[in-house]
Structures are given as C-alpha cells and as structure tokens.
Automatic annotation (TrEMBL):
Keywords: Coiled coil. This is F-box domain-containing protein. The keyword Coiled coil applies. Residues 2-29 form a coiled coil.
Length: 568
C-alpha cells in the first residue's frame, strides 16, 4: 500500500513535470507568434531604454532600479533581451537609499568599454559609498557623464577618496545641497577627469581660477545659483574668463550681492572670440551690467541670454532703462537684429506669474539669437487713462535704439505703453508686425494712424510723415479674452480705418498704392467671426486677408522653445 502510494506520487510528479514542459513549449510558440516577439532585439532594447529615460513623468512612484526590474520581468524572452541590451545599463541612477543589490546587478551587466552615464540625486553619506563604488568600477567603462546632487561633505568624501583616471569623461555636474558650499576637491576632480569639456557647478561659491584652469580642455562652464557674490568672487569670474581660453559656452547665475557692491574700476576682458553661447542672470542689475561692460563679445556669438532681475525695476523705470543702455553698449559693435519678439510672464488672463519680466527675443538668422529679460514697471492710470489691461513701460522708446534700429519684423505679445509703439512706428525698415488685440482703439491702431501723445497731439519737433513707412504685413492675434464677435469685427474696423488714415498721410490712394500686402488674423476659435462687410472693408486696405485657427504666428519659434523664455 505504502509502496504503491509512493509510485503514484512519483508518476504524478513526472506527469506534472511533463505538462509544465509542454506548457512552457506552448508559451514559447505563442510568444513566437506575437508581434512583440518578432521585433528585432535592437528595437526592444530601445523600448526598454526609452521607458527608463522617460520614467520621471511620475518619478515619485517608481524608483529607477524598480523600473529596470519590472521591465525585465515581463517575460523570460524579454528578460534575456533586456539583460543583453547595453542601452539598458547605459544610465546608472543612484539615490539616497539605493540598494546594493541593484548596483551589483547594474555593475555586472555593463559591458567592457561601454559608455555609461552616472546620475546621483540627493545622495546621502550612505549613497556616496555607492557612487564611489560605481565611479571606481568605471575603470573598465567609458564614464561619459557623472551627475551628483549631494552635500558638500559627501561630494568631498567621494572624490577625495576616488581611485580613478577616466580619460573619456566629457561632462561633470555637481550640485551642492548646502547652498554656497566651498569646492575643496578641484585637484581630485581634475586628476580623475582630465579631459572634461563640460563642468556644471550649482550652489557653490565661485571657485578660484587656479582651480578651474586645471581642466585644460574645458569648453562649457556653468556656475548656477550663486547665492551671494562678493567683489572677490567677481574678480575670480573675470580671471576665469581671461584664463579659460577654450570656452565656447558660459552660463552664470547670481542671485544677489553682499552688501554694498563697488562700481569699479573693473578690468576689461580680451575678446571672447570662441564663446558661442553666453547666459548671464542676476537678481541685481548692477552685476549683469558690470559683466556686460567688461566683456568684449565676438560679433558672431550665436546665442546670448541676459537676465536683469533687480526687483526694484517694477517701481522705477530708470532701472530698466539703464539695463537697456548697458545691453546696447555691449552689443553696439555688432549688427542689430532683423526680427524681435516682445513677450512677458503676464498670462492672457492678466494674472501675474511673478515679477513683471519683459522678454526681448531677437533673431538675426536661424542660428544667431538674443534673449534679454528685465523687470519693468506698470504704468499708472494717470499716464494711460482707463484701460481694460494693465500697461507696462518698456525701456526702448527710440527707433534709433540699437535693438530696434534695423528691425524688419516684430511680434508684440505684451502690453507696452504708447511711447514704445511710437518708437516702433518710426522704424524705417519694419515690414511685418504681429500684435495682440485686447481693446478697441488700442496703442497699436493709434500709432498706425499716426497719433502722437495719448491725448492726440503731435510730438513737438517731429518730422515723421508716415507711421510704419515700410509696412506690408499685419498679424492680429485674438486670444481667449477677445473671442467676442462684436469685438473682433469692431477691431477689424478700427484697423481698416487706421490703415486708411496712414495711407492718406503718405498721400497714397486706397484702393491702390496705399494698400498693404496682407492682414492675417490668428484666432484660437475655429471660426474667425468676421462678417462679409468687414471682410470687404479689409480688402479695400489690404490685398489679401487671411485667418488661421491659432494664437501664435509661425515666427520666432526659436524663442518660444527656448529655455530662457520658458523660465521667466
């Protein structure tokens, strides 16, 4: 009885094992017939890699090592492909509580001479051990970039004890969580990564030039979130720029100054002929002005961003005027731009998203751009009267100002006071303008028909006969606040009337030589809502009238997509 029972159990075990093998074979046949199985392994590896790259959509719910494990556990076949895919282990993420098992797995899977990117975020002293271990294991890899976000002590412990000389490392990013820590491991860094081309330092004091000059191949330097700058720190920045002769990109972000900051004298730097990208941001206009005054920029600099962030600029218009003057003087030796976008942080609903930053995005061609930001004051009611929208005093009010002097096209998605529009109307080369419609008889239509001051009187001594003398194209943007059909038709009537008055001032007939080439309306609604009579009226002052279901003309995409204009 007992023997027969054991024999029955053994037979059952054999049958279970056979059935399991049959089931596994069936699953393999099923997988082989599935579309996923037919994908090339290279494509599957890209799927895994991209899934990891974009996991930060909801970063808090899934840690990087868990994501790798979950992706690899989809199926036996997928797991084999994933573990064999070098791209899956191209990025090694280390956090405060990253487990040693994950590092063991990652370090085991990285192939010899493979390119690796190491990211350490909010690393504690315990996590620093993992970073050190990962970096030192990089002797058999090519560590292309290392990113570390930790306290100054943790960063110093990692790099002071690092036994590594990585010839292939191109970028190093160190963020100090202590806020204004002192970088004391520059010698260790330059020894471990002798050929770094990009160095990103955030939250540190300004390092000394003698430390940075050890990075002989340095071409891209970023000093972010310098909380307080001292005169000694400013001198160090000048010395860095003077000695780092291979720099092609320089990014400086200074939040404030330490007490009274002297006006000078400050040195004038040699021509920065190799710098193609420059960004200067300061919460004190004086700092940005000192730097711009000292720099002698190459005339073919490709991308330049300057932020004049003095908060007092919202009360005193002279502050932004001085900033505009400094910018013009710094670039006077270069050719003025042909295109300009004027924008701000004020939303379509009129709600302020911070200080009243005004952004000027200038463009020469598809390669060379300038973005300048300033804090500007709002105009008082006695200056502009009663309006449905708060207006702002802009610092450029002369058509001969460097930024305006050669413009051929401009887009204004902001609410400047009338003096700015007067200046725009006096630019002899301006051919194309796009504006945001917000009120009947607004500043633009008044400037278009040649009004002088807000009360209608002419400016004393003016000799300008025709406003916008070269104009041939007008774009009008109707936002969500201006979708009322009556308003749109009324604004179109005002525009047609202003164009007739402009033509009369120039002595041109309408229809005829006084007509411009095109009026283009941009509206977020599918229907513009312009009636037939209004459309015919517009055709009497323009050869072509168009409408697009959009609130943004296709100009200045370089500015709409830029980091600078998204930040402020």
């Amino acid at each position: 009885m007992y023997a027969s029972t054991l024999e029955s159990l053994a037979n059952l075990d054999h049958e279970i094992a056979r059935l399991e093998q049959d089931l596994l074979a069936l699953k393999r046949r099923r997988n082989a017939a599935s579309p996923v199985y037919r994908l090339p392994p290279e494509l599957l590896s890209k799927i895994f890699f991209l899934a990891l790259r974009y996991m930060d959509v909801d970063y808090s719910k899934m840690r990087p090592e868990c994501t790798k494990m979950s992706i690899c556990a989809v199926s036996h076949q997928w797991r084999e492909i994933a573990f064999a895919a070098p791209e899956l282990w191209m990025e090694i993420q280390i956090q405060a509580n990253t487990k040693a098992q994950y590092l063991d797995l990652a370090l085991k899977q990285v192939a010899e001479n493979q390119e690796v990117y190491i990211d350490g975020w909010h690393v504690t002293s315990n996590g620093g051990v993992g970073v050190l271990r990962t970096l030192e294991a990089g002797k058999k890899w090519q560590v292309k970039r290392a990113v570390l976000n930790a306290s100054a002590d943790t960063i110093h412990r990692i790099f002071d004890g690092l036994d590594l000389k990585s010839e292939g490392t191109e970028a190093l990013e160190l963020t100090c969580l202590d806020w204004m820590g002192k970088l004391l491991c520059a010698n260790a860094l330059s020894g471990a990564f002798p050929h770094i081309r990009r160095l990103f330092l955030a939250g540190w004091e300004v390092p000394s030039a003698s430390e940075l000059v050890k990075f002989s191949a340095l071409a891209d330097l970023t000093l972010q979130r310098i909380a307080v700058i001292t005169p000694e720190g400013m001198q160090a920045i000048f010395l860095i720029l003077k000695q780092a002769r291979h720099l092609t990109h320089f990014d400086l972000d200074i939040l404030s100054t330490e007490g009274h900051f002297p006006n000078g004298p400050w040195p004038t730097l040699p021509r920065l002929s190799k710098v193609k990208t420059l960004r200067i941001s300061s919460g004190d206009n004086q700092i940005a002005s000192i730097l711009l005054s000292a720099l002698y920029l190459s005339a073919d600099i490709e991308r330049m961003t300057v932020v004049f962030g003095s908060p007092d600029g919202r009360f005193n218009p002279e502050i932004s005027r001085q900033a505009a003057s400094t910018l013009s003087l710094a670039l006077m030796h270069t050719t003025a731009p042909k295109s300009l976008l004027v924008t701000s942080t004020i939303g379509d609903d009129g709600v302020e998203k911070g200080l009243e930053y005004i952004g000027f995005g200038a463009q020469w061609d598809g390669k060379r751009t300038l973005a300048a930001f300033m804090v500007v004051p709002g105009a008082s009611s006695w200056e502009v009267g009663v309006t449905s929208q708060k207006l702002y005093s802009l610092p450029f009010i002369n058509p001969e100002d460097w930024l305006l002097s050669r413009l051929e096209s401009i887009e204004v998605v902001h609410y400047p006071t009338f003096p700015f529009w007067e200046a725009i109307a006096g630019i002899p080369t301006l051919q194309k303008i796009s504006v945001r419609a917000w009120q009947r008889n607004d500043c633009f239509t008044r400037a278009l028909q040649g009004d002088g001051l807000p009360d209608g009187s002419l400016r004393p001594g003016t000799t300008r006969a025709t406003p916008f003398p070269a104009l041939n194209s007008i774009g009008v943007i109707f936002t969500a606040r201006s979708l009322d059909t009556a308003f749109k038709n009324g604004y179109a009537h005002d525009l047609a009337s202003a164009l007739r008055t402009r033509a009369a001032r120039a002595g041109h007939s309408i229809p005829g030589p006084g007509q411009i080439d095109i009026v283009h309306f941009y509206c977020c609604a599918s229907e513009l809502g312009i009636d037939a009579d209004t459309h015919n009226l517009l055709l009497s002052v323009a050869w072509d009238v168009r409408c697009s279901a959009s609130t943004a003309p296709a100009n200045f995409e370089f500015c709409r997509d830029s980091d600078a204009l998204d930040t402020y």
